[in-house]
Write a structure and sequence with these properties.
The chain is mainly beta and 694 residues long. It contains eight helices and 41 strands. Helix content is 10%, strand content 31%. The strands form ten sheets. Strands 25, 27, 28, 31, 32, 33, 37, 38 and 41 form a nine-stranded antiparallel beta sheet that branches. Strands 1, 4, 5, 6, 7, 8, 9 and 15 form an eight-stranded mixed beta sheet that branches.
Length: 694
């Protein structure tokens, strides 16, 4: 076990460090974890004396700053004098990785969480920070607060109040870093440069705001009475709406920039319609003992003290293996594979057509010469899914695989072609879910015929062995996760790989009146579904904090399970040859017909009615719409004609293109999504197309 101590760093005083136990009195309160960790994991390991508890048993502790324990030069600081009058909550964050990391990655995580703790302390005006970070492997997956996967294309997502409400528990899910679509680079979690659009620590705090503090996203708004779209409104610059924000929205806020932080404070122009996040925090049951004023006025300046959490590395995360690097040169030279949009997978097993585990790695960075294969070992296979460099319109998909024969980087890899003549549109549908806490699901994998053998890899690991769960049947029972990969292998060893995800919370991401009560979207974040409750606006976040007993409407929404599958390659033609595809193909399923979201649906004795506005948003890169002669549209796959039917923005008002936000949206209804509105819902498939005009 590797350990560092928790400290306070004092800014502007030669960075003087104080041991936290030399500054804090307590704990006056210790909250146990909602999901208790199995007894044999890190058994007997103790946190540092400050927390007076076993390493993995507690969620947070509450302390008070003790003036008699602090040096006089610190207590003389006016802001510190105010901090002495309030309590401080320090969180215990359990982080699980799906591979065995090296020391360099662990060190970067420590830096990231140090920065995130300082930002959380600043955002909450000294009420909260990270007190302890524990890094482990797959043995912590079913108990963790955060899970980090090897893929650099896993879009961050979390469950609102997942930390405190057992029925909503699901850890924050992250990738190895934060993917920047426009620069095609992986932002490490310790990179937090506003000027370079790097928001690693800020993203950690944003997701923690959902998971632990009960905050909701504040970046959605209805437009033209047909769409609900993400937008960074000028009157909603909070860290829950914009990662450049450095405060929670309060009853009254100050325009301007905080000292030493390049970011925007939340601003409000109309107190009557204020979205008061401090009220949400004050009403959250786990934190009522802090006695936070619901009308708290956010502090403008940065806090003078910075809590630095203790840091532990335990169990299977200690090994420090030497990472293997992808050998792409031979694939480029021999098969002309294009690094851009090339997806990488590590497949374990003795044969490529008999896989025992799959670790998605994401896509190659713009500088891809040293792309590390997390979790890979000699004897594993590497699969590349992309296309050749042949000029348009001679686009050719390309699937390659190679076995890692040696760690010697001077030895070339032998690549094998595994491109099928056709690529199926994989769709994953939830067929049943029980009422256990947390819930369990039954899913069905669809969209392929008998020429394929199916291998499904849910993001779950077996207790004891740590082996990844593998399923061969198209119907899979007793799943705790609705995220994973599907691998198809043909009889002649051709390959196709897809990824599926539920998107945000396993249930609803808010309560009655929240603008997105049914979160859904693809694993990499390029496709998102947004829903807006048109019967409950103008929206005020403060009164929306869910009661201890969830409302009937909240439970109604939680029955909907909307899953999006990403098919990176599909060769079906568009209905008009002037259009060409410029995105992945996304398959969307629902376990309940969308007609149950139409106006007039009575939930309980006429007390609650439903009227949700559903919108599918597809994101694209800058180069997709480069030039004034490019027109974008959304294609919907027609299974009868086996073509993509184009819906042009000039021909229909159900499509809306927003180049300033790099998105194109389609309003979902019985015409644009008949499968989702059918009595027995069927998958719907969408992708972006473009054509050159003039």
């Amino acid at each position: 076990m590797i350990q560092t101590r928790a400290t306070f760093q004092l800014l502007d005083h030669d960075s003087k460090l104080l041991q936290l136990e030399g500054a804090l009195q307590g704990p006056s309160r210790r909250e146990t974890r909602t999901m208790p960790v199995k007894a044999d994991i890190a058994a007997g390991a103790m946190s540092e004396p400050l927390f007076k508890s076993e390493l993995l048993s507690w969620a947070f502790c509450q302390f008070s700053l003790e003036s008699s324990l602090l040096p006089p030069e610190i207590t003389e600081i006016p802001r510190v004098q105010k901090l002495l009058k309030q309590d401080l909550i320090l969180f215990n964050v359990l982080v699980a990785l799906d591979w065995e990391p090296n020391d360099a990655f662990v060190d970067s995580l420590q830096t990231a969480f140090n920065s995130a703790s300082a930002l959380l302390y600043d955002v909450t005006d000294g009420y909260m920070a990270f007190g302890q970070i524990v890094i482990g492997g797959v043995e912590l997956m079913e108990y963790a607060d955060m899970t980090i996967f090897a893929s650099n294309r896993f879009f961050p997502r979390s469950s609102v109040n997942g930390m405190s409400e057992r029925r909503k528990y699901q850890p924050i899910r992250l990738g190895r870093g934060l993917w920047n679509k426009q620069t095609r680079e992986t932002i490490d979690w310790n990179q937090g440069d506003y000027n370079r659009n790097q928001f690693g620590p800020q993203t950690l705090v944003h997701e923690w705001g959902h998971y632990a503090l009960g905050m909701k996203d504040q970046y959605l708004q209805p437009e033209d009475e047909k769409f609900v779209l993400p937008s960074f409104s000028l009157v909603k610059q909070t860290i829950m709406a914009n990662l450049k924000g450095t405060e929670f929205a309060g009853a009254r806020t100050v325009r301007g920039r905080p000292a030493k932080i390049s970011g925007l404070l939340s601003t409000r122009s109309d107190d009557a319609n204020d979205d008061n996040e401090w009220q949400v925090l004050s009403l959250n049951p786990p934190f009522k003992s802090l006695h936070i004023d619901a009308k708290h006025n956010p502090i403008k300046n940065r806090e003078p003290l910075v809590p630095v959490p203790s840091f532990y590395v335990v169990e299977s995360a200690i090994g420090n293996p030497s990472p293997l690097t992808l050998r792409l040169q031979e694939a480029e030279n021999q098969y002309s594979i294009v690094p851009e949009h090339c997806w990488v997978y590590v497949v374990k097993g003795t044969k490529i057509d008999q896989p025992t585990a799959l670790i998605a790695q994401g896509t190659l960075d713009d500088s891809h010469d040293s792309f590390q294969l997390f979790g890979a070992a000699v004897g594993d296979f590497v699969v590349l899914s992309g296309n050749t460099s042949a000029p348009s319109p001679a686009f050719e998909p390309l699937i390659l695989w190679s076995k890692i024969e040696t760690a010697d980087e001077s030895r070339p890899w032998q690549w094998n072609i595994a491109t099928p003549p056709e690529f199926p549109l994989i769709a994953v549908t939830v067929k049943a879910n029980d009422d256990n806490t947390p819930p369990r699901y039954t899913i069905a994998v669809e969209g392929f015929d008998s020429q394929w053998e199916l291998w499904t890899f849910p993001r779950e690991w077996q207790r004891g062995t740590g082996a990844q769960r593998v399923e061969r049947s198209p119907v899979i029972h007793q799943l705790g996760s609705l995220e994973g990969n599907v691998m198809l292998v043909s009889k002649d060893r051709k390959l196709a790989i897809a990824e599926y995800a539920i998107g945000g919370s396993p249930g609803n991401s808010g309560d009655t009146g929240h603008p997105n009560p049914l979160p859904a979207g693809s694993a990499e974040g390029n496709a998102m579904l947004f829903f807006y409750d048109t019967t409950r606006h103008p929206l005020k976040y403060g009164p929306l904090y869910p009661p201890n007993s969830p409302s009937p409407l909240s439970l109604y929404y939680e029955q909907f399970k909307i899953v999006t599958s990403t098919n990176t390659i599909n060769l079906a033609p568009p209905s008009s040859k002037e259009w060409s595809p410029c995105s992945y193909a996304f398959s969307i399923t629902s376990n309940i017909p969308f007609t149950k979201l139409d106006p007039g649906q009575e939930v309980v004795d006429g007390v609650y009615t439903v009227d949700l506005l559903p919108t599918l948003v597809l994101y694209y890169d800058d180069h997709t719409s480069t030039g004034t002669d490019v027109e974008l549209a959304i294609g919907r796959y027609d299974p009868s004609s086996k073509e993509w039917v184009i819906r042009d923005t000039r021909e229909t008002d159900t499509i809306d293109n927003k180049p300033d936000r790099n998105l194109i949206a389609i309003s979902l209804n019985k015409e644009t999504a008949p499968g989702l509105y059918a009595e027995s819902p069927q998958p719907e498939h969408y992708r972006i197309f473009k054509k050159i005009v003039g």
